[in-house]
Amino acid sequence: MIALQYACLLILLPCLLDAVRRSGIEKMSRDDLFIWIGLTGLIFGILLCTRDLPEGVTLKYSGAAFMALTLGYSRALLSMTLLLLITQPWANAGVVLLVDALLPIWLMIFVVNLSRRYLPANPFIFLLGCSFIGLFTVYAVQQCVGLAVWSVSVDTPILSTLFSERTGLHLLLASGEATLEGMIITILVVYFPQAVLLFDDEFYLSRPM
Fold first, then answer.
1. Which of 100, 133, 158, 173, CA to CA, is 20 to 30 A from 65?
2. Structure pTM?
3. Residue 170 belongs to a domain with what CATH number?
């Protein structure tokens, strides 16, 4: 497990350095800074509400994919790294940061890029495909990878864990989070689109549907 921790840190550190370089902090507007700080503070408050449930399931909010949609890759990764370092034990920091920060953020960016490349330039494609369906897909993968890592740490067969009731409960929680965040993204796109960085007005609204 220690080797896995070091491997995760080796993967994560270059990504963090690249995120700092690409975050654009030096030329960020006051509104963008306010949105970044506000969303980070909101996610931090929600992460403090983590609770342990029966059957070894932890009721906790992820928020990484949501932050990727709203803040973009670099700022989301920096914020989630900071929040997880504050709220999670440092003993498993490498795995936690990789599974709960880098993986869902990267997957969310991948989903958005995939939809822009192969699907029509329609705002409903973004709202349904990226927000609701995309968020659930990302969180489902994140939960399954997290369970697989947990299985390795406790020396349990991975397949037996992935096809257990525990996985179903995690996916149920993921669906609830994706639905809630999808509704929030929809409201933001309609009334406050500048808060959703990955929603490109020129791409989704300037072309015929």
1. 158
2. 0.91
3. 1.10.1760.20
